[in-house]
Structures are given as C-alpha cells and as structure tokens.
Amino acid sequence: MTFKRIWTEITEWLQDDATWEAFGIAAIRIIIIVIIAKLAVWLLHKTINRIVLERTDKHKPAHIRRMTTIGKLVKNVVSYVIYFIAGLLILAEFNINLGPLLAGAGIAGIAIGFGAQSLVKDILTGFFIVIEDQFAVGDVIQTGQFKGTVELIGLRTTRIQSWTGEVHIIPNGMINEVTNFSINNSLAVLDISIAYEADIEEAIRIIHQTAEETENENLVKTPEVLGVQTLAASSVTIRVIAECRPNTHMAVARIMNKRFKEALDQHGIEIPYPKMVTYHRAYEGAQ
Description:
The protein is α+β, with helices and mostly antiparallel strands. It folds into three domains: 2-115, Helix Hairpins (Orthogonal Bundle); 134-180, SH3 type barrels (Roll); 186-266, Alpha-Beta Plaits (2-Layer Sandwich). It is 53% helix and 17% strand. It has helices at residues 2-15, 17-58, 64-93, 98-115, 117-131, 200-213, 249-266; strands at residues 140-143, 146-153, 157-161, 167-171, 179-180, 186-194, 224-231, 236-244. The strands form two sheets. Strands 4-3-2-1-5 form a five-stranded antiparallel β-sheet. Strand 1 (140-143) and strand 2 (146-153) form a beta hairpin. The radius of gyration is 36 Å and the shape is elongated.
C-alpha cells in the first residue's frame, strides 16, 4: 500500500500543470544563467586580451612573455569565479539552501588548507614568480644545485632542463634563491699565456689585431685587451675580455681561443710548455 501511495503521489505531481510550469520557468532561468555566464566570460576575456596587447606594445620584448602569462592566469581566475557563481545560481533554481552548502565548503576549504600547506605555498610562490618576472621560459637559471634552461613555469612546479639533457621538476615552494643568466650581457674572460722568451709587445699587438678582426653574432662590442695579467713560473698571461649576449660567453671564448692560437702560431709567438734546465758545475780536482 505504501508503494502504491507513493506511485500515486508521483503520478499526480507529474500530471499537475503547475509542476511543469515551474519546471519550464526554472529551465528557462538556467539557460539564461548559462548564456549570461558564457557571454560575461567572453567579454572579460576580450577585455583582458585587449589590455595585454596594449601593454605589450608599450613594453620591451623581454616583458611580452610575462604579460601574456599574466593574461592567461587572470582569464582562468575570471572563468572560475563566473562559473562558480553561475553554479550557485543554478543550484538555487532547484530550491537548494546555499547557506549550509557555503558554510560546509568554507570548513572544507580550511581543512584542505591546513592539510595542503606545501601545495598552497607552491601555488603562491609560482604566482609571484610570474608577477615579479623573476625568470621566464627560455631563460638559463640556477636555483640551488640545479642549473639549466627553463622549459615550463607552472603555478605548482617549474621544469628546468640541464645542458646535458636531464629534466629537473622543482616545486615552486623550494625556489628560494634564483640566479638568472639570461637578463644581462655576459662577459667572456680569456687568459692567453705566452713564453717569457716571446716579445710581449708584439704578442699584445697580434692579440689586439685578432680581437678587432673577430666577428661573431654573439659579440656585443669589440673585445678589449687588458694587458699582462700575471707572471707565472714559466709563462706570461695576457687577459682579454669580450662582452657577449646573455649566456653565450663560453661559446665565444672557445672561438676566440682558437683564433688567438692560430694568429700567435702564424707570427712565431711561442706558447709556453713545461721546461727543465740542468746546470752542470765543474768541481776543482775533477778529472
């Protein structure tokens, strides 16, 4: 009898015109909420894109990637907020009391926050890395014992690839100190050793001429010959410095070392090598 009574009530409820009228009104309201939410997201995304484009036109190319990344983050946050509000409005159309639901969500959020402090730290640190433009994708950085090229900057982790191929995935919360090698120009320092028997002035002239004739796309300006740096046991060291594009000093140093060696060989300037001189003393009475 109980099942029959329940079935009768359900049938009467479905046959009631007021039920379908209320359902239709609720469905129309839900459709309107979804349309308004999508329209608001589209308009705000367009506005954010326009703002980002205007700012990138006024900034240097180095800041374009940061502005683009910030734009994507803001668009994601805007989308989440609008869809969350739309979801609450849709639930309200089903006569669901949102007060206890929001209170429960707040308590759950506090519990999750205490249980996932490291995750929250990683996300906050990643957000400030992007906002403060500490480094960008493609930069060569060193944090702790890891050094390499930044492949990805996420809100939780940063991925770095070393020059030997290893990929390091570092939680953003562990990035306390960063050295960025890709912001300013780098300096190639070359120490060229020649023998004591060589003519120092001639060697400096040859090195200076070779430096002026050296052409490389990574050189910012003509290398500078500073002069004699040290007097070692078997050699005289001449120092040359060259300002290069960021993180290209090692490649430039290899090329210039080769050209200096070839130029010195052509002019007969000897490169020092270990030598041993033996003195024989003649003693009185020796036969």
